[in-house]
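Task: complex structure prediction.
Instruction: return structure tokens for all chains below.
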Amino acid sequence: MTATSYDAVSYPGYAYEQTHPDRIATQATLFGMSPASPAACRVLEIGAGDGGNLIPMALGLPGSEFVGIDLAAEPVGRGTAVIDELALSNVTLRVADVLELPADLGQFHYVIAHGVYSWIPPRPRDALVAACGRLLAPHGVAYISYNAYPGSYLRDMASDILSFHLKGVGDPGERLARARHLMALVVAANARTPYAGVLREHFERVLQHPDPLLYHDDLAEVNTPVYLHEFVAHAARHGLQFLAEARLHDSQLHELPADVASELGRLPDDAVVREQYIDFVVNRMFRQTLLCRDDVALDRTLDARRLAGLSFAAAMRIERTVGEEPTFVGRGGVSFQPGRRRLSAAIEVIAAAWPNAVT
Ligand SMILES: C[S@@+](CC[C@H](N)C(=O)[O-])C[C@H]1O[C@@H](n2cnc3c(N)ncnc32)[C@H](O)[C@@H]1O
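Output:
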């Protein structure tokens, strides 16, 4: 294998909770599937890097098997050293190209590709979706994240400007320094048109990114956003259908003003069309979509009976004012009062149990 940009500049591995089999199985159960138990499943991560996402899962789910593949040998080597040090026998990282996946992989209940689809050229991008279609077990679920339109037109604008500025500059350190300089210049110009304002705010945010993220995400030579409907059409060519967005609340209409939600609620009963219009009104830039095989019969009506057998967990702080219903404050500062005493009491029990779950 030839060295890749991920061998030259390390990409920091993280654990992404929305890719955890427990979370994905919950979504699948809510929509009428019978997913494999997270405690006894097989998980494949494509573009797994140094295993920052898979290794914690393997630690927490000793009865499941985790396989990560990545084109870059350097992060795979680093991750393998961690696996050896922890003496984990249920997780392996392998150097492999998604274009030529090893024939002995077998089937998987969950396939994850976080931060890969938009950042690889068309052939491997297609091979990634094809691998999900080929390797998923009958009630298996694939998670693929990608940059989405219409919001990513802003990324395209930024990327065009930076590509022009960095033409012919190969050295990673120099690319980073020059990009930071130009972005700071645009911010300092403080031009007073609406479009300049949007770009300025974008560059202000991007300037906060640490070097490895800036290098691989924002200065990447390949960065291909797609509309949700294009992504779903791509998945359909490989025998896959849209299941849900990995964060359920990203698909909820009740966070929109009531009249907007009511109008979107009158759209045809087609999950993809509804999701697409939500992207238009929130100008979404990024998606984390769950797919399943197209022969699975889904039922997206949220039915309370499907909650039976699930566990409940919530990272929430409880704020109390004498004589008032408690306020629950989640991560990121989102707060709410359920408005019903029994519901409030149930959420108090769940919040108090965190980080454990209530069954
Ligand atoms: C932006 S990084 C994301 C890494 C990790 N999934 C994360 O989110 O932290 C993209 C990863 O895809 C890997 N990759 C790129 N092309 C690939 C290919 N053809 N086959 C397998 N992995 C590939 C890169 O080496 C890199 O580790």
